[in-house]
Specification:
Helix content: 10-25%
Largest sheet: 7 strands, mixed
Structural class: alpha+beta
Oligomer: single chain
Number of strands: 7
């Protein structure tokens, strides 16, 4: 359940065009950038209550042990889906303050996964976001993180993505 204190910003739903503008501006992002040759290339975000869902089809380059998705890649994917949950639900860019991960089962590199991120709570500039990576048969990993708002998406788009001006 999303809980907001009385002084919190009212979320502004982002249009498909604003999301596209944002994706273009950050096309080199390691998590979602389409122009980053070594990135995760997360895409296909769909809204769910208080968050987002996206498919994740890992590259063979993301191996840890032979045939197993590297745990650091899983952590990055959970962090990225958390960021997109904040973008979609609250229209804000966030920085990761703390991210706790529980790995529950192995993730075969040749499987297709589903990522979900849900904003559980917002207090001022702090958001508590939970995320999960699920494979065909089981939850592979779950995270709970504390994130801090950097700025609104609209402000960043107006400044052409310059995060240093906040």
């Amino acid at each position: 359940m999303l809980q907001r204190y009385s002084g919190a910003m009212t979320p502004i739903p982002l249009s498909d065009q604003r999301v596209s503008d944002l994706r273009t501006l950050y096309d080199r992002c390691y998590g979602c950038g389409s122009q980053n040759p070594i990135g995760l290339h997360l895409d296909g975000f769909t809204e769910i209550p208080n968050g987002v869902r996206a498919p994740f089809d890992p590259k063979q380059d993301f191996n840890g042990f032979h045939g197993i998705l590297h745990g650091g890649v899983i952590a990055t994917a959970l962090d990225e889906i958390s960021a997109w949950a904040a973008i979609h639900t609250d229209g804000v860019f966030i920085f990761t303050a703390k991210l706790e991960i529980r790995y529950r089962s192995e993730a075969r590199i040749d499987e297709l996964f589903v990522l979900e991120g849900v904003v559980e709570e917002r207090r001022g500039k702090r958001l508590l976001i939970k995320a999960s990576l699920t494979g065909p048969d089981a939850v592979v990993a779950e995270s709970s993180g504390l994130f801090v708002v950097a700025d609104t998406v609209e402000n960043l788009l107006a400044r052409k993505g310059d995060i240093t001006s906040t």
